[in-house]
Amino acid sequence: MNAIAEAITASAPARDELARPLRDLRLSVIDQCNFRCTYCMPREVFDANYRFLNASERLSFDQMMKLVRGFVALGVEKVRITGGEPLLRRGLESFIERLAGLTTLSGAPLDIALTTNGSLLAARARGLRDAGLSRVTVSLDALDDAIFRRMSDVDMPVAQILDGIEQAQAVGLAPVKVNAVIERGVNDSQILPLVRHFMNTDIAVRFIEFMDVGGAAGWSNSTVLTAQNMRAIVENEFALLPLYADESSTSVNYRIANAKGTVGFIASVSQPFCGKCSRARVSADGQLFTCLFAKQGADLKPWLGDAVSSDELIDAISTRWQNRDDQYSELNADRRRSGQRKSWPTVRMSLVGG
Ligand SMILES: C[S@@+](CC[C@H](N)C(=O)[O-])C[C@H]1O[C@@H](n2cnc3c(N)ncnc32)[C@H](O)[C@@H]1O
Ligand code: SF4
Taking the model in full, what pTM does it have? Predict the structure, then answer.
């Protein structure tokens, strides 16, 4: 990393209607992916005729830099790069290098994280670290090759993802985390193998409840294995010791007794955490989403050109954050428990990045 630290002038920190601060930005850099996870980009929808964003519709890295500076001025401390599959976006390392030159309002380096399916990570880990990436989360839903292939719908061995995870650790990206979305009856058999595989490493494994989001056409209440159920599966074999969780953490974490490792459970469906959600999401084409379940995003592209000042962009983001009153998951918990799906389409995870 050889970027020169760039301080950003503070604007009044943004708080939404429920007094939630703006702390995290999830930035999707591409809507394409080399996987076809059945719960995210089912092949029958994302087929050869599917119209992905073309290069001119995607934000350029210059536009993204302006955007991130605006978010940092409003209090953002962490940027998570996501997709689609973010490692498919050409030039990502040089973008990360530019991001690494930014400091937060408190003067700390911006925390830069990446969420990836891990398939291209082995060869890229060193360059990503050199560019200034701090941490990486790899999505891996199964250790069993057949289950992994069925869920990701690609012909790739799990070993390729494990290699990426190992390389990320070897070059010093830290922390490295593994996230697994658990679908009842599909990969719940993989919870214990994943725990066993990583329990004596520094890699935290987190199990995520399957959500009724855009792209998850096969979702129904009966496909959700709750965090409580997942924990019970782990506790059948291992004693778990609760770990202190910081305010902003979405996962409830445990140390595995007599082992080095930790596991976490993200109860986004059964115990939603809207009350502490400080996350904004921007899709690869510059739409701001203040909730995964929002009916629509706000197009920020008009503020990202050179002709518009940064102050105007900051005002635009701030106004939208201040008007934010989303708490979909909490307000709809009862409706969902009774088995009803949401009745409106929401943004696809592959466009906004989960
Ligand atoms: C959309 S992907 C984008 C980044 C990258 N391609 C990856 O898979 O890590 C981000 C995360 O969203 C998760 N995800 C997608 N659809 C989901 C759903 N219906 N419920 C819960 N998590 C989901 C994926 O498992 C992945 O961990
Ligand atoms: S979850 Fe990630 S890897 Fe799977 S299809 Fe969606 S974007 Fe691709």
Answer: 0.94
